[in-house]
Amino acid sequence: MRGYFFIASAAFLWGVSAALGRAVFTGKLSLGAAALRPIDPLILSQTRTTFSLLVLLPCLVASKGWQRIKLPLSDLAFCVVLGAFGVAVSNYFYYVAIQRTNVATAIIVQYTAPVWVLLYVVMRGEQKLSLQKVLVVALAVTGIALVIGIVGGRSNSGSALRLDSYGILAALLASFSFAFYNVAGHRILARYDRWRVLVWTLAAAAAFWLIVNPPWKVAAARYIPAQWLFLFVFSMISVLGAFSLYFLGLQYLEPTRAIIASCLEPVFSIVLAALLLGETLRPIQTLGIVFVLAAIVMVQRPARNVAETDFVIEPIE
Question: Which residues contact 7 (CB under 8 A, 6 or more apart)?
Answer without folding.
Answer: 245, 246, 249, 253, 258, 261, 262, 264
